[in-house]
Amino acid sequence: MKLKSFYFLAAIAALSFTSCSDDEKEEVVGIVAGTITPAESTVAYKLAPLTEGVLDNKDDSIAWDVTDAAMQEAVLKLTPTLNATASVGGVEVTESGVTVDATKPVSVQVTNGSKIVTYTVNVYRAKTAVEGLTKKAALPATNVVWRDFTYFKGKFYAFTVTNKITDQTTGAAEEAYVLQRSTDGIVWTDVDYKVTNADKEVIGGEGARLVPFNNKLYVLLGQRVLGTDKFGNAPDVEDGWMGPSPTIPVWRAFVSDDGENFKSLEADSKGSFNGETNPISNTWNSPYANAFVFNGAMYVYGGYMYGFGMQQMNRVLMKSTDGLTWERINPLDEIGAGFVIPNDGAFFTLGNKLFLIGGYRNFIGADYVSNIVYSTTDGSTWKMEGTLAEGMPLLYQAKAFSNGSVVYLFGGEIIDAEDTRTINNKMYRSEDGITWTEVAVPASFAGTRFPSAVVVGDVAWLFDGDNSISQGYWPAPQATDTYPGNIWNMPMK
């Protein structure tokens, strides 16, 4: 490194001096060294001036999985030659650095008196991805009762519901509805969000889903049955005809343009069914439902409802193109007969089709868990694409994620012929949505129910869900379940 530094300084000196006598020497003007640090990262990558007027990090490439958003808010630090000043776009590069968009070349001016030298900073990411799953971080998991993740406008978002007993004698509890975001998927900060058109209101609830759609972030559905919120609003529990039972008294839907300021859509939402449109009913609100985007519309299916004093499976399939009017769909099979879509299955898109794998009908039991792969091109008519190969487990509450050409499946719960339930620790890969191959994963990769996955470019980010074995006929998460909070990533290949 001493030889390289000597070579650079000698080169700068040669470039910065004109041919003149010793008493007419000009000051050396250049950059000795520098670093580039992606947003929220603790790693500073070294920049070296290896060629005339160019600074780069080819000898210390940025990690392959750093997001574009983190690169676009990178911090550039430079060490100019003695008495020289470096600036980017007229902003001086101080000791604390300057924020730059490192996804494209950055022009730097180095000034000493009347002498000005221009540098170009080129920042490189490693081209070779780290194979397989890599654990990147872990989020706090104390008192978590629900989590969901997404990616919106260059940021990761996490919606977390936590529950804490505030009075052991009465069992009184308080729930927090926390929204967090991250630029790099590793460092997370709380969002001080607001519901602008409702007084003392929080977003979502247990089982709520984050859905980016049409350049907006939606928070859909959710129940609040375990405690009061930070404003003192009571949980969703009323005296039913069979005694106290949870209800969902309102339709819950919120939307934001910026991930901070949300608007409640409850008052303006409508439900369309069999040609009639009316104010939307709270019975359409299904906590823990699947929510996804397909063919220019948001879809919601399944989840759970309360009726006859107990929790039951919900079979409502609905879609919306504007977030306000939701059309209830009667799904059909290939011959036009009514089709019951399995609940808690994994939806994913591949090509121009929406696929569904796994899930169950009626209730949890070996005879009711589906081993059939279904697809649709319009969201209404469903066809059988095939059955899972022998040895492929019967799964529900798993997660599938796709980049449009390949799809992976992980997590969820397995039930065997004896009705024994276990968490699925395996991962599978498919290029057609029908034929699946097991993928090697680290021994430390433990499966969870209701996990999340986000695909950003060529990188898939995986987020833990609930790692407790389900109980009862309808395996909705319980307040006593646990969430590990681990964050993994992998290349999409």
Explain what you see:
This protein has 493 residues and is mostly beta strands. The protein contains two helices and 43 strands. Strands 6-5-8-9-3-2-1-4-7 form a nine-stranded mixed sheet. Strands 23-22-29-28-25-24 form a six-stranded mixed sheet, with no helix packed on it. Strands 15-21-20-17-16 form a five-stranded mixed sheet, with no helix packed on it. It is globular, with a radius of gyration of 27 Å. 41% of the residues are buried. The model is unreliable at 1-23 (pLDDT under 50).
- Sheet of most strands: 9 strands, mixed
Mean pLDDT: 91
Inertia-based shape? globular
Helix/strand structural class: mainly beta
Q: What is the number of helices?
A: 2
Q: How many beta strands in the DSSP annotation?
A: 43
Roughly what fraction of the amino acids lie in strands? 35-45%
| Residue runs with pLDDT of under 50 for 5 or more positions | 1-23
Distance between the termini: 37 Å
Radius of gyration: 27 Å
Strand order of the largest sheet: 6-5-8-9-3-2-1-4-7
Task: Provide the helix percentage.
Answer: under 10%
